[in-house]
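LAB NOTEBOOK - FOLDING QUEUE
OPERATOR: T.R.
BATCH SIZE: 2
PURPOSE: Compare the predicted structure-token outputs for two unrelated chains run back to back under identical settings.
PRIORITY: normal
REVIEWER: second-year student, initials M.K.

ITEM 1
FIELD SEQUENCE / FIELD STRUCTURE:
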Amino acid sequence: MPAQPVDLKKAGEESPAVKQVEEELAKPLAKPEGKVDGTKKPELHIGFKVTETAIPLTVKPDLDKIAERLKANTNERVVLMAYASSIGDQSSTARRVSLSRALSVRAHLIDAGINSLRINVQAEGSKNPGGDPDRVDIFVESTKEEDEE
């Protein structure tokens, strides 16, 4: 015979753990920051032409500003999310192109004096959550534990 759930309120006892869980469940959900889908808004969006992997010259000053910010704030790191459009069934090509783009941005930041350990590269290929399919999004994150709470 399967075990029957016990209703602690009927039994006249209420466990402190059960009460804490009920209180947490009753709280409204916090709205995520950033975009509607809950992701953070990128610090910088670098658009590329379909097959290009070199950083556009017009974006380099903005990239240099991010490098200066990282130098001034050693508790911050960057995440490079790279995307590339794919034609037909060429998702592996899109992944390679997106990786090349992210590595170009990474190399620029390293040349500007940023430690490579502070740069996380994610080549998403054609897995685009929305927006321009040929881009690198740069997110700046804090590494301090108190900021993560």
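ITEM 2
FIELD SEQUENCE / FIELD STRUCTURE:
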Amino acid sequence: MEKSASGIKRRAFQLREKGFTYALIEKQLGIPYAEAKKLGHEYDARHGKPRKVVRTLAPESTGSGPITIPVRELRNDSAGILRQVEAGRSFLITVAGREVAALGPVAARGRFASKSALEAILREAPLDDQFMRDINDVLGERIDQL
């Protein structure tokens, strides 16, 4: 999040445009209430009071499903959204109300050894017979596909 005065002012104006109360602006930006109120009044003087007032924030991701956000929110707060993705949240991005993209954490990739690497390991340190039977029981013919 931007910490410069102009960055805070810009973000406060964006929040006020969405109808955020001064208290929510204070909470979102981590600034004193008096500063949030001053910025809110400045926005109201230039643009008029918001038609719709937001008094509570949407709850944090309560379900296991993705959070739906408009592309504008992704554009305006991409760093914040990506921090949430890194923390494990998933998002559905919409354009004009249509779902167009999914954004989520990269799945952990399995690390497999190549067949030639596995064969080299088995040549250097052969497995005991019981362990080899256990592997064959679990993997069957799939070991040839590695």
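REVIEWER COMMENT (ITEM 2): The chain has seven helices and three strands.
FOLLOW-UP: none requested
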